[in-house]
Amino acid sequence: MSSYRSRMALRFLSLALLIAQVPEVWCGIPSSEFRERRARLLALADTDAVLVFRSANGQTRSGDVTYPFRQESNLLYLTGISEPGLTLLVIPRGADVDGKAARLMLFCPDDIATSIKEMKAFEDGRILGPARFRQIFDSIVGSTRQLMLSGANLPFVEDWLNDRPMFLEQEARQRLQGKYPDLKIRNAALLVARLREFKSPAEIDAIREAIRVTGDGIRHAMALCRPGAAEYELQAALEYEMVRQGATGTGFPSIVGSGPNSLILHYDRNRRVMEDGEVVVMDVGAEMDGYSADITRTLPVSGTFTEEQRRVYATVLHVQEEVIRMIRPGVRWSSIESRAREMIGAAGFPGRMTHGVSHHVGLDTHDVGEMDTLREGMVITVEPGIYIEASDTSFSAGYRGCGVRIEDDVLVGKDGAVVLSSNIPKDIETIETRTGRDR
Ligand SMILES: [Mn+2]
Asked: What's the CA-to-centroid distance between 332 and ligand 1, angstroms?
């Protein structure tokens, strides 16, 4: 057999294995909740609109190896089905399909359709073969005023040979617009965001579970932290606990930044060997049933903070606790943001918080939703930080090259904040006692 033919045979085999996999439906959220979400979307959407949600594309890593598949978050929110090749069509006014009215249609390959039917995961709509999409879409798009699209996040491809970005989706939209000049094409993600920004009890449970295993990972990493250990040893301990307890992975690449890396907000190389006298920032989150945790703890590598590090840490902790106390429905996001900056400035570190103090957390680590006023049912992070560059001569040497961030996930409850990650240690005494305990 030529090497080409054996390669093709191998490729066919891997394709066959892929097809034989049972479609994955996230197990933590009941199918009744997905039905409710679709009903709420139908009620929210304009009756003259048509909404289309499309699976994420698989991403090639190299050759025929792909990155782990992650479903597009809006389609995941509306169906719970984590498979490529799906299209969800939502027609609030209804359309005639084979003589019967339908408002929700899911287009998918036969094998997946069989499993979805067995799992009763789409009983409020019609399940149709992928080839039917074109036919049904063409029959309704001419009489539609608004087309709302949400698909794989593919804003542009860099055409580096010609030094220009290529906006593929824009091109696709322009073609459609040329065919239907009166059609308004909008972003369906903004509409779904209005549902996603409030978390149901089942979603809060999923986030709590993601936080619980993240906390176990942090405790494990804390115990192993010592001078001479590499950042990746802590990463391994963190992710070991997450995966061991059923997490599907991490919601984002684990950040384990020691010494100078503690200043790099999205540092995820994690290759450095940690030294005595430094701090290490661990910003991590497990993914459970599609939902992500987002927790940061900062440790003294040796198990004891220096005097300067202790002062920075105590300031960040004090600011974090104050912001958490402020949280309740009706409070403006801008007021918690400005209060945090004001306190950090007053403590002697003006302008040294180089990022926002809070964001939504959910299916996406940086989840969707408005950021104007806090409302009951939102889940947000509270993550002040202070970062003093090595070159910052307005501070004495002991402060320089040190970054501290403390981040918890908080439910905006009726009477105030419910800290979902409250049992992950952050007070100085516990941090110092537990760091390096298993050295
Ligand atoms: Mn965060």
From this structure: 19
Specify burial of residue 270 (Cβ count, 10 A radius: 0-12, 13-18, 19+): buried
What does DSSP say about strands 255-258 and 279-284: parallel, antiparallel, or unpaired? antiparallel
Give me ligand 1 centre to Cα 285, in Å.
Answer: 9
**pTM value?**
0.91
Distance 320 CA to ligand 1 centre (A): 13
Q: How far is the CA of 407 from the centre of ligand 1 (A)?
A: 7
Distance (angstroms) between ligand 1 centre and the Cα of 366 equals: 7
Q: What is the pLDDT of residues 208-254, one digit of tens each?
A: 999 999 999 999 999 999 999 999 999 999 999 999 999 999 999 99
Q: How many CA atoms lie within 13 A of 221 on its CB side?
A: 36
The domains located in the chain, with CATH, are: 3-195 (3.40.350.10), 198-434 (3.90.230.10)
Q: In this predicted model, what pLDDT tens digit does every residue of 112-167 receive, in sequence order?
A: 999 999 888 999 999 999 999 999 999 999 999 999 998 755 667 788 999 988 88
